């Protein structure tokens, strides 16, 4: 039968890279998001967002800890102290937290969600869904 | 009141707005003729229906059947009285009125995906079609061959073009796309026009040149609009933002995040005021301050019906608790005139500089005509600058 006399290196070529219609996401990498420096939640969120997953998970875990440590009555004040971008960012973390529910997280997150919703409106949630940069 | 034409007309609040329910299906797109006595609309199928105003009624006078797919865009050229339609069948037709009937002329767009929007240029010698083929077809009439020819604008578009608007100079074209960007292209066709004079967006305008590309908003760009002077462009994005850019040495962008659902269409009603509408079913006013390069929320433009606020009986409370698990007395009924998303907005009188009346059509099959002056006086704190 036919012998493979020719090199088969072509099999290792990623042809999708050469597709001129291929969509390349133009995300600016590694930018630290600027944010307001009011509440404790804010400063922590500000330090950590980045594109590396491990840091993502650490950031999310930290934010969740902080959110859980707030007293129920203080949640509203915490949300009020954030500006528009802060509320959007908070909503992103809330939904990220919903993705991986732990013991008590959902209940706490739901309380935060209610307050963030009244501050940011439905538009805030739409921005979580359409955001190019995820947390 | 329901008239003999079977069309429901409701007049509210000294004609701040008048609502006509044309259909039970969504109105995919619409266009008005020059004197606003006739409206062409697509009733969510392959046809275009033209209705004529008859006192308080609307009667269907023409049915344009040629498309093999849903008609996604209609534009009616006021001076030359031609209608251009485009559809999901990848075609566009230019319709001319011959006697008592509209005759179609096929335009080969050379696209392999659905056409999504179409607009006549201000001088009506060209029209542009946005499509899912990730390009804009700019079509013009070639006298020698007696048919419509098109040129493509491809780079750097990465996804479907959802909306288009022409600059008053007949050359620049703003396009909103699913690749999250609003861009201004030059659609200069040397066969049909002279070289354009410099504008706020630049002076060199070869065909296909990108004069402006937006940054800062995410989400598909559903609606785009030039201001009357052409120096400003506004766009509405799916991330519930609306933005305005002003041309200049460096284009200045101002955007506003809103608390509402995404807006689908936007138009200037004066050089500084925008009206936008979308999935929240009511139009909203935005005001642009060029000194501060800032956009602000101007107010909701729907005057709610004066419904008697009756208290809830104990029985109703219990019913609500049973049905909806809440004793909240706010009903889940839309108070707005439109009962479903508003998908298109068009200026009726006054142009984009001093709009006196504008029209919205939506997925509830209804069309509403809004009177700007009456709205301004009906709503306190509403200032149209």
UniProtKB/TrEMBL annotation, chain A:
Cited Gene3D superfamilies: Actin-related protein 2/3 complex subunit 5
This protein's UniProt keywords: Cytoplasm, Cytoskeleton
Entry annotated with the keyword Cytoplasm: yes
Protein localization: Cytoplasm, Cytoskeleton
SUPFAM superfamilies assigned: Arp2/3 complex 16 kDa subunit ARPC5
UniProt cross-references to InterPro entries, sorted A to Z: ARPC5, ARPC5_sf
GO cellular component, one term: Arp2/3 protein complex
One of the GO BP terms on file: regulation of actin filament polymerization
Family membership: Belongs to the ARPC5 family.
Record function comment: Functions as component of the Arp2/3 complex which is involved in regulation of actin polymerization and together with an activating nucleation-promoting factor (NPF) mediates the formation of branched actin networks. Arp2/3 complex plays a critical role in the control of cell morphogenesis via the modulation of cell polarity development.
Protein name: Actin-related protein 2/3 complex subunit 5
Organism of derivation: Cyprinus carpio carpio
Lineage of producing organism: Eukaryota, Metazoa, Chordata, Craniata, Vertebrata
From TrEMBL, chain B:
Entries under InterPro entries matching the protein: ARPC1, WD40/YVTN_repeat-like_dom_sf, WD40_repeat_dom_sf, WD40_rpt
Superkingdom classification of source: Eukaryota
Repeat region (WD), residues: 64-98
Keywords associated with the record: Actin-binding, Cytoplasm, Cytoskeleton, Nucleus, Repeat, WD repeat
Keyword tRNA-binding: no
SMART domains with a match to the protein in the record: WD40
Subcellular location: Cytoplasm, Cytoskeleton; Nucleus
Described function: Component of the Arp2/3 complex, a multiprotein complex that mediates actin polymerization upon stimulation by nucleation-promoting factor (NPF). The Arp2/3 complex mediates the formation of branched actin networks in the cytoplasm, providing the force for cell motility. In addition to its role in the cytoplasmic cytoskeleton, the Arp2/3 complex also promotes actin polymerization in the nucleus, thereby regulating gene transcription and repair of damaged DNA.
Protein name: Actin-related protein 2/3 complex subunit
């Amino acid at each position: 039968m036919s012998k493979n006399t020719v090199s088969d290196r072509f099999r290792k070529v990623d042809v999708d890279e050469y597709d001129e219609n291929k969509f390349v996401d133009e995300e600016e990498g590694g930018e630290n998001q600027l944010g307001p420096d009011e509440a404790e939640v804010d400063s922590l969120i500000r330090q950590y967002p980045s594109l590396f997953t491990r840091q993502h998970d650490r950031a999310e875990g930290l934010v969740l800890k902080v959110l859980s440590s707030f007293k129920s009555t203080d949640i509203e004040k915490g949300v009020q102290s954030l500006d528009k971008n802060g509320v959007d960012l908070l909503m992103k973390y809330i939904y990220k937290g919903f993705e991986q529910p732990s013991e008590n997280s959902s209940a706490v997150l739901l309380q935060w969600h209610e307050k963030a919703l009244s501050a940011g409106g439905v538009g805030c949630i739409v921005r979580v869904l359409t955001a190019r940069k995820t947390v | 009141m329901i008239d003999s034409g079977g069309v429901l007309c409701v007049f509210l609040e000294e004609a701040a707005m008048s609502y006509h329910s044309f259909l039970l299906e969504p109105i995919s797109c619409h266009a008005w003729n020059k004197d606003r006595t006739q409206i062409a609309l697509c009733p969510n199928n392959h046809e275009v229906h033209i209705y004529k105003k008859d006192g308080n009624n609307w009667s269907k006078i023409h049915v344009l059947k040629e498309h093999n797919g849903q008609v996604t865009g209609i534009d009616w050229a006021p001076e030359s009285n031609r209608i251009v339609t485009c559809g999901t069948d990848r075609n566009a037709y230019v319709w001319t009125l011959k006697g008592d009937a509209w005759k179609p002329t096929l335009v080969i767009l050379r696209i392999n995906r659905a056409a999504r929007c179409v607009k006549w240029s201000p001088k009506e010698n060209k029209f542009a079609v946005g499509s899912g083929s990730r390009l804009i077809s700019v079509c013009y009439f070639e006298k020698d061959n007696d048919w419509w020819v098109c040129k493509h604008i491809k780079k750097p578009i990465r996804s479907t073009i959802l909306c288009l608007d022409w600059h008053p100079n007949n050359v620049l074209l703003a396009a909103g796309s699913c690749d999250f960007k609003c861009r201004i292209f030059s659609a200069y066709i040397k066969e049909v026009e002279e070289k354009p004079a410099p504008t706020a967006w630049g002076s060199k305008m070869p065909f296909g040149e990108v004069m402006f590309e937006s940054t800062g908003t995410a989400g598909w760009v559903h609606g785009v609009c030039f201001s009357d002077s052409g120096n400003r462009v506004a766009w509405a994005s799916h991330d519930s933002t609306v933005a305005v850019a002003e041309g200049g040495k460096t284009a200045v962008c101002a955007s506003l995040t809103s608390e509402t659902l995404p807006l689908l269409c936007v138009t200037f009603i004066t050089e500084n005021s925008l009206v936008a509408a979308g999935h929240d079913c009511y139009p909203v006013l935005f005001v642009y301050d060029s000194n501060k390069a800032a956009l602000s929320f101007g107010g909701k433009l729907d005057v709610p019906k004066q419904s008697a606020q009756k208290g809830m009986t104990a029985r109703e409370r219990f019913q609500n608790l049973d049905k909806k698990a809440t004793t909240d007395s706010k009903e889940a009924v839309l108070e707005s005139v439109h009962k479903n998303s508003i998908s298109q907005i068009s200026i009726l009188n006054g142009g984009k500089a001093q709009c006196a009346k504008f029209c919205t059509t939506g997925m509830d099959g209804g069309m509403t005509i809004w009177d700007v002056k009456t709205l301004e006086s009906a709503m306190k704190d509403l200032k149209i600058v």
